[in-house]
Automatic annotation (TrEMBL), chain A:
Gene this protein is translated from: paaJ
Protein name: Phenylacetate-CoA oxygenase subunit PaaJ
Organism for this UniProt entry: Brumimicrobium oceani
Superkingdom of source: Bacteria
Domain PaaD zinc beta ribbon, first and last residues per copy: 108-157
Domain MIP18 family-like: from-to ranges: 4-67
InterPro entries: Fe-S_Maturation_MIP18, FSCA_dom_sf, MIP18-like, PaaD-like, Zn_ribbon_PaaD
TrEMBL record, chain B:
Signal peptide: none
Origin: domain of life: Bacteria
GO-annotated cellular components: cytosol
Gene expressing this chain: paaI
The protein's name in its UniProt record: Phenylacetate-CoA oxygenase subunit PaaI
GO biological process, alphabetically ordered: phenylacetate catabolic process
Transmembrane segments: none
Pfam family, one: PaaA_PaaC
Lineage of origin: Bacteria, Pseudomonadati, Bacteroidota, Flavobacteriia, Flavobacteriales
Length: 160, 252
């Protein structure tokens, strides 16, 4: 068993809150280390410190490896801190098809009166949208509405 | 006081700030003025409790007495909590919750920016993670301060009353003692005195936009860092600790 095989297995583990993404697409899996025999160590990092999905992800990774008669220990590391830049190209594409706008370059969030980023509508692709709430259904999303097609949509917040 | 004791105390103070405020915000769950704000406040609550977990974990390791992060969160008595008085104050109306958050976020933003450069790698890692979340909180509370302050006569008056009332707790955010002295010398934490002016300037810029102002001078309260709290904390802890006290060692 090589580490590429383990990475391939992890492609089956999806994010419980955004099930269209795998933990590999998300960039949550940082490393895969062979410990001994059938035992592997998987290093993961949280998207947000309080993200309740992390425990589920840990359990899901363990049960996925068990299917191939392997055991896993999962270690959670905070550094380097997760950034939306780690979201794979494939992941971004899947998000958009799912109806969630992937992260756009937003500039510095602490700048209150700075320019507002353009967040396109994932459905009609219009750039005329408005922010409804900075905090959406999960920690990693914000709520927007399209001014053209009127559809409300989730935006996967940029975190850098 | 040894460096280890000072580090433990500092971590406890900051973890308690986050846990107690996180718990207060969670009281809004199902009671927000609008659905979006119900979700926003509980999202912020979740971030804060997540931050507290990381800080308690590290505190427990530094202490080295076999306690876990849950022991620290759930099994200490009131006098052993070291959070500032600001965070335990009652939610009041939505405006008061926002003002409390506004003062806290502005302080945390500058503090955690400093902690990112900590010589302690673990603290620097926690801060680098946390600062990204704080920036969102800061923007949220600042935007609401402007919207409420520069809103209707009713919202302006209410939020101004909260600014005046809660300004009594601002000084304590900058509390310093031997703990800070030791850790500043080690380069583990920044000296909060160095950003007091920036803190006030940042806040005043937004308060001005919101047509609000801090009172000229206000009697300042403190005690939280030494474990001397307002009456509100005991009631909060009774709810927070109920399950662990009633069913010791229970797990989900």
């Amino acid at each position: 068993m090589k580490s590429e095989d383990i990475w391939a297995m992890l492609e089956d583990v999806t994010d419980p809150e955004v099930p269209v993404l795998t933990v590999v697409d998300l960039g949550v899996v940082r490393d895969v280390i062979h410990v001994n025999d059938n035992h592997w160590k998987i290093i993961i990092t949280p998207t947000y410190t309080g993200c309740p999905a992390m425990q589920v992800i840990e359990e899901d990774i363990k049960s996925r490896l068990e299917k191939d008669k392997l055991t896993a220990e999962v270690e959670l590391v905070l550094s380097p801190a997760w950034t939306t830049d780690w979201l794979s190209e494939n992941g971004r594409k899947k998000l958009e098809e799912y109806g969630i706008t992937p992260p756009q370059d937003e500039g510095d969030k602490s700048v209150l009166f700075g320019e507002k980023p353009v967040i396109p509508c994932p459905l009609c692709k219009s750039k005329d949208t408005r922010l409804v709430s900075q905090f959406g259904s999960t920690a990693c999303k914000a709520l927007y509405q399209c001014n053209d097609c009127q559809e409300p949509f989730d935006y996967f917040k940029c975190l850098k | 006081m040894t460096k280890q004791e000072a580090l433990f105390e500092f971590l406890l103070r900051k973890a308690d700030d986050s846990l107690i405020l996180g718990h207060r915000l969670s009281e809004w769950c199902g009671h927000g003025p609008i659905l979006e704000e119900d979700i926003a406040l509980t999202n912020i609550s979740l971030d804060l409790i997540g931050q507290a977990t990381e800080l308690y974990k590290y505190a427990a390791e530094v202490e080295g007495k076999g306690r876990t992060e849950d022991d620290l969160a759930f099994l200490r008595i009131e006098r052993e909590y070291k959070n500032v008085l600001l965070v335990e104050q009652l939610n009041g109306d939505f405006g008061k919750t926002i003002v409390r958050q506004f003062f806290f976020d502005h302080f945390e933003h500058l503090l955690y920016e400093g902690l990112m450069n900590s010589t302690d790698e673990r603290i620097s890692a926690i801060a680098t993670k946390t600062i990204k979340e704080i920036k969102y909180h800061l923007r949220h509370s600042s935007e609401w301060v402007i919207r409420l302050g520069d809103g209707t006569e009713e919202s302006h008056n209410r939020v101004q009353a909260s600014v005046t009332d809660l300004s009594r707790f601002i000084n304590e955010l900058f509390f310093q003692d031997e703990v800070d002295e030791i850790l500043i010398n080690e380069g583990i934490i920044p000296d909060v005195k160095t950003f007091r002016v920036a803190f006030e300037n940042n806040m005043n810029k937004i308060l001005e936009e919101a047509t609000l102002s801090l009172p000229e001078e206000k009697w300042q309260l403190s005690g939280g860092r030494k474990g001397v709290h307002s009456e509100h904390l005991g009631y909060l802890l009774a709810e927070l600790q109920y399950m662990q006290r009633t069913y010791p060692g229970m797990e989900w």
